[in-house]
Amino acid sequence: MEVESLENIKKRIAEKDEEIKKLWEELRAEKEKPREEIIAELKGIKRTTGQHPGGLLITLPDTDIQKYTPLNYPADNRHFLSEIFLKVDILGHDEPTVLQKLFQLTGVDPSKISFHDEKIMSLFTSADTLGIPEFGTDFVKRNLLTPLKPTKFSQLVQISGFSHGTNV
């Protein structure tokens, strides 16, 4: 049995490049099919009933909160309390503190960074966002930054909103 040289192997693979890519895509699609079906079934279902210290309900002045607590919505009508209550989530964020400490350490004033700086925007268009709050997750990089390739700060604001999903 004759051993093929590396160059010969590379040449033969290159000749079949398109066929190999097509086969790879077909195999990947077939492998992903059950996953996609499961995801479609799970979309929109209620995942948990939870609480956190930043969740507040703001009521009308004449509303007796005792009449409605504890709160849980029916599975078939998640908006039935929206006319009575305004739900506000006040979540803790460390970013302002981190920015201030970084400013003290580096001398780089975050308020002086231009929203139009091409080098900064290139971080988002290349999805090189590890460590940037809200943009460093695989979900945001893979599903929002990579396909949308934002070029303006206003687009980053929109992506930030999309990254939280619906009914949040």
UniProtKB/TrEMBL annotation:
User: GO molecular function terms here?
Assistant: 3'-5' exonuclease activity; DNA-directed DNA polymerase activity
Q: Where is the DNA polymerase III alpha subunit finger domain?
A: 96-167
Q: Which residues form the Bacterial DNA polymerase III alpha subunit NTPase domain?
A: 12-81
Residue stretches spanning the membrane: none
One Pfam family, please name it.
DNA_pol3_alpha
Protein known as:
11337_t:CDS:1
Q: Which UniProt keywords apply?
A: Coiled coil, DNA replication, DNA-directed DNA polymerase, Nucleotidyltransferase, Transferase
- This protein's superkingdom? Eukaryota
Report which residue ranges the record marks as coiled coil: 6-33
GO process terms (BP): DNA replication
Q: Which organism is it from?
A: Racocetra fulgida
